[in-house]
Amino acid sequence: MRDDRQQTLTALVLALRPQGEADCRVESVTAELGRVGAWAKGLRRPKAKLGGVLQPFTLVALTVHNGKSRVIIGAEMVSGFRTLKEDYNRLTAAALLAELLLAVVPADEPAPAVLALSVRALTAMEQAEEPLGPLLVVLRDLMQLLGWGVNAEICAVCAQPLTGTCFLQLQSGVITHGHCRRSGMALDEAALASLAGPAAQPSLVALEALAQLWQTHLERPLKSLRAVRSAFHHLA
After folding, report:
1. What pTM, to 2 d.p., does this model score?
2. Are 114 and 104 contacting, i.e. CB atoms less than 8 angstroms apart?
3. Structure confidence by residue, pLDDT tens digits, 152-208
4. Per the count of CB atoms within 10 A, which of 1, 34, 66, 188 is most buried?
5. Integer Cα distance of 45 and 121 in angstroms
């Protein structure tokens, strides 16, 4: 007999929260239900069947039982992103994305676009020579998906193409020419290029701008930001 309380989700595992002696609460973003937290019984035992599958930054087909709480009863790996997990800078970039997804993706609401965007970002971080570029793209595109997008091509005051040193207004999320409004966070042309789309040389100024915008929207600091700054300081 079919159990209607059993469901298989396409899930990107983001974090494991240890509970008790051997259990874990697995936090993920799914196409079908957005952010999902589910219990994995005995996951921390040395010979746990799903121990090698339920790891952060792993795309899985996740089978859950929906009772008083969600319990994981099965998982099959779709993509393990092994190269990403073996490189500190790539892993650090992914950690910032995970922090944002856990903060902004609502629970129990379908989120196929967010999941697809996240998987593309992790794939790009894994394959790119320098993972900062894909990180900037997903920070910008996720913001756009949430309705917080920044126009890095047209001045918000004079509606002319942005050139030279411009300024980002963090509270309003708009960019202006210096001669239109000389206040806010200064952006050079390299930062503008990174904010407008994939750039040949990703900008640390753009990273800082996007991070500051995210912190403004979330109204709290990003815990992963310090590690990200350290990981990419060599590009300064």
Report:
1. 0.93
2. no
3. 999 999 999 999 999 999 999 999 999 998 889 999 999 999 998 887 788 999 999
4. 34
5. 31
Structure-token pair, residue 226? 């310090």
Class of domain 83-235: mainly alpha
* Alpha carbons 223 and 17: distance in angstroms, whole number: 16
Q: pLDDT tens for residues 20-73? A: 889 999 999 999 999 999 999 999 998 888 888 999 999 999 999 998 889 999
| 3-class SS string, 96-161 | HHHHHHHHHCCECCCCHHHHHHHHHHHHHHHHCCCCHHHHHHHHHHHHHHCCCCCCCCECCCCCCE
Helix 189-196 × helix 204-218 angle, to 10°:
60
| H/E element, 205 | helix 204-218
Q: How far apart are CA 149 and CA 33, in angstroms?
A: 24
Angle at 122 between CA 211 and CA 104, to 5 degrees: 45
Judge whether 38 and 26 are in contact, CB under 8 Å.
yes
